[in-house]
Predict the structure of Pentatricopeptide repeat-containing protein.
Amino acid sequence: MYIRSNDVCNVEDAVKCFNSIEFRDAVSWNSILTGFSQNGFSDDALKFFCNMQAVSVRIDHYAFSATLRSCSDLAVLQFGQQVHGLVLKSGFDSNDFVSSSLIYLYSKCGIIVDAKKSFDESCKDSSVTWNSIIFWYTQHGLGEIALDLFHKMQELGVKGDHITFVGLLSTCSHSGLVKEGSKILKSIQPTYGIPLRMEHYACGVDLFGRAGNLTEAKDLTESMPFEPDSMVWMTLLGACRIYGNMDLAIHIAKSLLE
């Protein structure tokens, strides 16, 4: 409860609760380690991981995944490689979440070969590792490869989730693949049965906005079944700035202020 509030004072209370436990098992260690990792306290997460090793607590896939994510956030490749070595010794390298965290680590640190190797060695039977590698190609502007991976997912019968489509739409947006992105956006709910979320609409607005299709971006915003959040409006406002559409920018600015 305390650690999920993402407040420094409450994190201290979380640590006090943890320290008051007489017999700490893997669950209590993982709770605070994962909480640190997910809420941006990556330095603390790595310290706790080292403490877990010192007191010989059993380290499982939850702990490895959280620790590798913290290594990614801090871009501490050497420590991450050491954790990777422990993962291999412990036999958790085939776990989806650990593999995903390894892909994320090597991607963040620009180690292309190891990111791809971690993906190739993963089980690939869920969308978790596929999402990580798709996002990696997205970040590096390799949209065509990311789309090919999605088609490979479909061939293998792996179902994508809402995160998969955020990655694909981002890929199309950053790679200028407007036609492909538009097709994906229209197919998410009817074809894959995944309800459209705010993130999908934001990516769609970015897709059309980057390409200068401001009318389509505006129409998409207005077609949303819920109120657009500030990110959607700011994305559209950024497109107006690039293409000099002052009239639309004024309208969006009013919506942002509201």
Remarks:
- The chain has a mean pLDDT of 92.
